[in-house]
Write a structure and sequence with these properties.
- This protein has one domain: nmb1532 protein domain like (Four Helix Bundle (Hemerythrin (Met), subunit A), Up-down Bundle).
- The longest helix has 34 residues, at 31-64.
- α1 runs antiparallel to α2.
- It contains five helices and no strands.
- Helices cover 86% and strands 0% of the residues.
Length: 145
């Protein structure tokens, strides 16, 4: 049986690879490649956020009866990350390597902390409270575009 923890941790790893590819290209001054790789990363992480915000978090909140706590914190961190993504995109458009790499470093720290909280706390809790509905939740998340 697939778990939310394995499914979403795998998606984190995919996003991390795309992030690194974009950062490497920008570090090397390869602006066209950097922009393409950043766009792929941005699409992937925005989809990841939607999978959580449109499917996982509401299902988790319904099962636990609360909208406070872990999902509230994760949504707040998604907002912080979206702001950094916006700033990184602007730096890319201006070909400002220092700004891009500075925002990228900040985003990396936030993502690492965020992903650790999800993978060590939220996802295992979701697997537990959603129990027999886990497969359906995963299918719904995978259907998000």
């Amino acid at each position: 049986m697939e778990t939310i923890e394995r499914t979403m941790a795998s998606d984190h790893a995919r996003c991390d690879e795309l992030f690194t590819g974009a950062e490497d290209a920008v570090s090397d001054g390869e602006w066209e490649q950097g922009a393409a790789r950043f766009a792929a990363f941005d699409d992937a992480i925005q989809r990841h956020f939607k999978m959580e915000e449109e499917v996982l978090f509401p299902d988790f909140e319904d099962a636990t009866g609360t909208t406070a706590g872990p999902t509230e914190i994760m949504r707040s961190e998604h907002t912080q990350m979206r702001d950094l993504l916006y700033r990184m995109n602007a730096a890319l458009e201006q070909r400002d390597q220092d700004d891009y790499l500075g925002y990228s470093e900040t985003l990396l720290i936030i993502m690492q902390q965020h992903n650790a909280k999800e993978e060590q706390m939220l996802y295992p809790m979701a697997d537990q409270v959603l129990g027999p509905d886990v497969d359906e939740v995963i299918r719904s998340m995978e259907a998000v575009s």
